[in-house]
TrEMBL record:
Protein name: JmjC domain-containing protein
CDD domains: SANT
Organism: Ostreococcus mediterraneus
PROSITE patterns the record matches: JMJC, JMJN
Alphabetical list of InterPro entries matching this protein: JmjC_dom (IPR003347), JmjN (IPR003349), SANT/Myb (IPR001005), Znf_C5HC2 (IPR004198)
């Protein structure tokens, strides 16, 4: 192995994808970004070059307003591998920073007019070998509410479709349902860079996507790692600089460490590279670690967005934030975002069904439905478990003023339900940590329900209807309705359940029936295990499903009777079953008669 085997400039980095959309494709940013993700997934980052004449114009008026001063971060480029916390640099106005950056360039006369490869070689020579000491000031994370967005209005006075300040409101952006502004997430940040100003390895908050536009000035070199390799990168970084992680386990959250790509490649991590020029966009996709540096003075702007491809990563981010070395506060309530987005997108399809976005919205409603089903299943499990342990139940308004408080144990922001204790009623716990943080008895704790099973089931049902309309509109047919879209409300009678969730004439598969009965409360049975669900499943079949034949119902009634008889008294007591096998016999007879009556009325059987 040669001495330069680990040097980044000699490493085998992949070229990140570059896209050249047509004017029509470029007309809708969220539709286009979703369409290219499958091609970018194995790289993590990509570049988009706008069609000729379609790039956003620079806002000279906003740039000219130069009364506000901003802080900078002082970066020692030769110490980036050491993970030092950046100290504050000088304060500047935009004009002063421009002048300082241009003057700084003059110190590197040998780089005047140099290409990106030469610039990259010099940068990594300083980082990897500490061949010279270089300090720069980086103007990052500047609030556009204070310093202005650099996106100018179009010639007709409208906002450009790719104006990052406008992206938040796009119908396909899941973040649009967040009611409060989050700087850098829902509201863009401005970035002023000079030669070698660096953004170290990091992922976006909640593993979101990001969109970065280089308004003007010198190029940037970017490095990206695909989301599937995120944990491998973290393990490699921990192994490469263990002393940094020992002193600060959350060092990657601080965005102060630059592990050279050459080292990562040598450890089998896939790293891609691209050069962003003035007037070009760079996209980072979910959980893609990225880093880079500026070749000289430049002005950029960036914001986060959440699209259909992010849904699988959002809950993962919450889980990662809640434990281990990467524990940190959540930025927003993920559960609330999913619920609010689901309600919004359930309504949105009819509005957009004739537009370019109809197919995308249809796909998004299906993805949200699956996420809602997962959340509902988790809620049912934890709520039933906590009630059995003795916690008191209390229904509260779903959008209380304090519904963005972090769990005292894991720092997640629970929304659908929270647990409070008498000893400290202002502190909240998520359901996973309901019994943590104090030693009080369960009866001293209160389980606050902000959204009932009935409410969540109705949202899922509406999403199912929107998805079905989308499938029909696109000339396809859904072959199976989602199981939990038919999940009845807690404690509903069979007739109400049938009328709300089980249209007559729709056949049900055994899997659907199994899911259907989850959460039904009959004689104080909270169904949990598969075997117990199968035992009670027949009640739903006999009382609600007229499309089953009499032979099928009788067969399942028989199985149910046998399972009830085999239950031990201790097991019935544990489950809170209030009827005996004899009572079950009576109940079976009642259900059989009810089914026969229904069969006559509907012509089923």
């Amino acid at each position: 192995m040669t001495a330069n085997a680990h040097r980044t400039i000699d490493a085998a980095l992949d070229d990140a994808p570059v896209f050249y959309p047509t004017a029509e494709e470029f007309s809708d940013p969220m539709v286009y970004l979703s369409s290219i993700e499958p091609k970018v997934r194995r790289y993590g980052i990509c570049k988009i070059v706008p069609p000729p004449g379609c790039a956003p114009a620079f806002n000279e008026d906003a740039w000219g307003r130069d009364t506000e001063r901003f802080d900078t971060k002082q970066q020692h480029i030769d110490a980036l591998k050491e993970g030092r916390t950046f100290k504050f640099g000088k304060e500047y106005t935009k004009a002063e920073y421009t002048t300082a950056a241009i003057e700084f360039d003059k110190q590197f006369s040998s780089l005047a007019g140099a290409g990106s490869e030469t610039m990259e070689r010099r940068f990594w020579d300083v980082v990897e070998t500490q061949s010279e000491k270089i300090a720069v000031d980086y103007g990052n994370d500047l609030d556009v509410n204070v310093f202005g967005s650099m996106f100018a209005a179009t010639s007709d006075g409208l906002r450009h479709p790719w104006d990052l300040g406008h992206l938040f409101a796009h119908p396909l952006n899941l973040l649009r349902v967040i009611e409060h502004e989050i700087a850098g997430v829902t509201k863009p940040w401005l970035y002023l860079g000079m030669r070698f100003a660096t953004f170290c390895w990091h992922v976006e908050d909640h593993f979101l996507c990001s969109l970065n536009y280089l308004h003007r000035g010198a190029s940037k070199t970017w490095y990206g790692i695909p989301g599937v390799d995120a944990e491998a990168f973290e393990n490699c970084a921990r192994a490469t600089v263990p002393h940094l992680f020992k002193d600060a386990p959350d060092i990657l959250h601080q965005i102060i460490t630059m592990v050279p790509p050459g080292v990562l490649v040598q450890h089998g991590i896939k790293v891609s590279r691209l050069v962003q020029n003035e007037g070009e966009f760079v996209v980072t996709f979910p959980r893609a670690y990225h880093a880079g540096f500026s070749h000289g003075f430049n002005v950029a702007e960036a914001v986060n967005f959440g699209h259909i491809g992010w849904l699988n990563f959002g809950q993962k981010a919450v889980d990662v934030y809640s434990k281990g070395a990467f524990k940190r506060n959540a930025v927003f309530a993920h559960q609330r975002l999913i619920v609010d987005a689901s309600e919004s997108f359930a309504r949105a399809y009819d509005i957009a069904r004739a537009s370019l976005q109809s197919k995308s919205i249809g796909a998004l409603t299906s993805a949200l439905r699956k996420e809602m089903e997962r959340m509902l299943s988790d809620e049912q499990y934890f709520r039933a478990s906590l009630v059995r342990r003795g916690l008191q139940l209390k229904e509260v308004k779903p959008h209380a003023d304090n519904d963005d408080v972090c769990c005292v144990r894991c720092k997640a922001i629970p929304f659908l339900s929270v647990v409070r204790c008498r000893c400290l009623p202002t502190a909240v716990r998520c359901l996973s940590h309901a019994m943590d943080a104090c030693s009080c008895e369960p009866e001293h704790r209160c389980l606050e329900i902000r959204a009932s099973v009935h409410q969540l089931s109705n949202i899922i049902l509406r999403l199912s209807h929107a998805s079905a309309r989308g499938a029909n509109h696109q000339g396809t047919r859904e072959t199976a309705t989602t199981p939990l879209s038919r999940t009845p409300a807690h404690g509903k009678d069979a007739e109400s359940i049938k009328s709300e969730h089980a249209p007559l004439g729709t056949p049900w598969t055994d899997e659907e029936l199994m899911q259907l009965v989850k959460g039904i409360k009959i004689h104080n049975i909270n169904l949990k295990s598969q075997r117990e669900s199968r035992a009670i499943m027949v009640i739903s079949i006999a009382a609600m499903i007229p499309t089953r034949t009499q032979t099928q119902v009788q067969s399942k009634l028989k199985k149910f009777e046998g399972q009830v008889r085999r239950m031990t008294a201790e097991r019935r007591a544990q489950l809170g079953i209030e009827f005996t096998p004899n009572h079950a016999d009576t109940r079976l007879l009642e259900l059989k008669r009810a089914w026969e009556k229904r069969a006559v009325n509907t012509g089923a059987g």
